[in-house]
Amino acid sequence: MIGYVTLGTNDMERAAKFYDALLATFGAKRTWESDRYVAWGTAPTAPMLFVIKPFDGTPARPGNGAMVSLAARSKAEVDTVYNKALELGAKDEGPAGPRGDDFYAGYFRDLDGNKLAVYHNPQ
């Protein structure tokens, strides 16, 4: 259902380096790029994640209440991605662990302050 998600950045080089390393844990690679954005995906028809300079030219700011959630194939992959994000300089917003009966997730903010979750839900 989701085609792509965009996250604003004020430092494209720094953001691209962060997401190159982080999204590689899912097997994602750069799919598109220009001077305004970089996009990653795992297959031509799979959802993509973009980091982008805002079109209106004003500084990028994290959305209040907005969050991007990355689906992991296992709890171990949640741990791997969450720990990789922190290793790359992300800020902890809730350590990887169980949230209810079957939901397992970790939360972090990227280098621009955008909030992300990585989760596994076997249902």
Notes on the structure:
The chain is built from 2 helices and 8 strands; from the N terminus they run E-H-E-E-E-E-H-E-E-E. The protein is of the alpha/beta class and 123 residues long. The chain has one domain: 2,3-Dihydroxybiphenyl 1,2-Dioxygenase, domain 1. The strands form 2 sheets. Strands 1-4-3-2 form a 4-stranded mixed beta sheet, covered by helices on one side. A 4-stranded mixed beta sheet has the order 5-8-7-6, with helices on one face.
- Spans of at least 5 consecutive residues whose pLDDT stays below 50 are none
CATH topology: 2,3-Dihydroxybiphenyl 1,2-Dioxygenase, domain 1
* Broad structural category: alpha/beta
How would the global form be characterised? globular
CATH architecture: Roll
Tally the beta strands: 8
What is the first-to-last residue Cα distance? 17 Å
Run of helices and strands: EHEEEEHEEE
- Going by CATH, what is the homologous superfamily? 2,3-Dihydroxybiphenyl 1,2-Dioxygenase, domain 1
Mean pLDDT score: 94
Helix content: 10-25%
What is the rounded Rg? 14 Å
| Major sheet size, sense and barrel closure | 4 strands, mixed
Strand order of the largest sheet: 1-4-3-2
Give the number of domains. 1
